[in-house]
Amino acid sequence: xxxxxxxxxxxxxxxxxxxxxxxxxxxxxxxxxxxxxxxxxxxxxxxxxxxxxxxxxxxxxxxxxxxxxxxxxxxxxxxxxxxxxxxxxxxxxxxxxxxxxxxxxxxxxxxxxxxxxxxxxxxxxxxxxxxxxxxxxxxxxxxxxxxxxxxxxxxxxxxxxxxxxxxxxxxxxxxxxxxxxxxxxxxxxxxxxxxxxxxxxx
Length: 202
Ligand SMILES: C[S@@+](CC[C@H](N)C(=O)[O-])C[C@H]1O[C@@H](n2cnc3c(N)ncnc32)[C@H](O)[C@@H]1O
Ligand SMILES: [Zn+2]
Known about the structure:
- The protein has helices at about 5-35, 75-90, 185-200; strands at about 40-45, 50-55, 65-70, 70-75, 100, 105-110, 120, 130-135, 135-140, 150-155.
- It is α+β, with helices and mostly antiparallel strands.
- It has a domain at about 1-35.
- The strands form four sheets. A three-stranded antiparallel sheet has the order 3-9-8, with no helix packed on it. The chain has a three-stranded antiparallel sheet with strand order 4-6-5, covered by helices on one side.
- Strand 5 (about 100) and strand 6 form a beta hairpin.
- Zinc ion binds near residues 123, 124, 167 and 171.
């Protein structure tokens, strides 16, 4: 084959390979988008914060609602990403860290557009919990949820940095900060101590 023709054919092959690869990636993305959606819920603006996830129909207790999708990252990378996300959040004022603990070695970074579950807000009276099944994370209802109710779970944040995370869940039982329910007694103690200190210095 003349050199000119050979080059043209190589170029054509390269272009076809590229388009085939793009089509494969598009199919995969579509698959992920579909997997990250659920007929049981949809995304809209939230009164708690930014966007939230709402029940699209009545949901019975212990129903698997939606998968928490993302990238599998080891602890080292995950720590780096968490700091990175927290720093970006601080700058933008839009605090959001999407790292979810999977096991001792791995986390899931849910900061991907096809993970609707990443938009579920925290509440002091949550109606959902995240349950780990093998190496996947699913959001389950822990009580019956009415159509239109916002989905929420306990973010389980540590009490040590409670002042950084004001809670706006609006529930009667709201403790004012996004802190793991397990640590509420400690939180209440620290809030009281702070108030007493403020009274003494006033
Ligand atoms: C993973 S995002 C949740 C989705 C978020 N609403 C959005 O639009 O991106 C987590 C962030 O949402 C906000 N958030 C979630 N629950 C909250 C609550 N109960 N009160 C105040 N802010 C909350 C906090 O800024 C938190 O860091
Ligand atoms: Zn609250």
